[in-house]
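Posting this for the archive.
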Amino acid sequence: MCLSDAYEIKDGKQNLVCSRVCNVSADGENVTLTDLMGIRKIVPGKLKKVDLMSNVILIEPC
């Protein structure tokens, strides 16, 4: 099973917002992340990059 870490990009830095992410959905204004335990986190912004080889999700503020 491949799980990813999600980072929010602020001021040019990557800040971890959720680890062990197994589900991602985006509606244009928010990115919803669900971790391995089923806990959901809604992050305002849009997907910038999803790198499945490195298991990294980058979210950029709108």
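The chain has one domain: 4-60. The CA atoms of residues 6 and 41 lie 11 Å apart.
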